[in-house]
Task: structure prediction
Amino acid sequence: MKKHFLALSVLAAFALPTTVWAHGDGHHHHHHDHGEHHQVDYSADFAAAQVATTIELSQCWIRNIPTPSPSAGYFVVDNKGEHDINLLAAASEQYHDIMLHQTVDEDGMAKMKMADEIVIPAGQSLHFKPGGYHAMLEQPASAVTVGDQVELTLLFNDQQKVIAQCEVKAPGARSFED
Result:
């Protein structure tokens, strides 16, 4: 019994300084906040990011749902680089709030959840499409109509970003071709 107790107290002693250090390190101001995910402010990261040369964004379209319902954004991300990439966030002048969601099947019910980690492996592509990953576009700055082009910026890790023009489509559209 004594031996176990000793091991535990040693662990506790080690755990303490590292925890304090992690929170005392000012460089990770918003990445360790695991509370409300959509409150993470990436504006500084968007500003600092460079347009990526190895990431391609195509077939971007928006299913325009009348407010107050959020509209949905879909696109294809191609990772042409040699490293896996992480999609962190999306932003647009047209929408005040954009969240990346994933539709998951739970007991035969389609449920939406925040997509915590969206990884696109090297040489692969990821399709954001109805029934899968999608961007929730909330609080439009002004009315958008079918046929409009909306600029969407995606933020990836390693300070990379990609800007795409997305075509606004009717609420009944199912794919980029519709």
Observations:
- The first helix runs from residue 2 to 24.
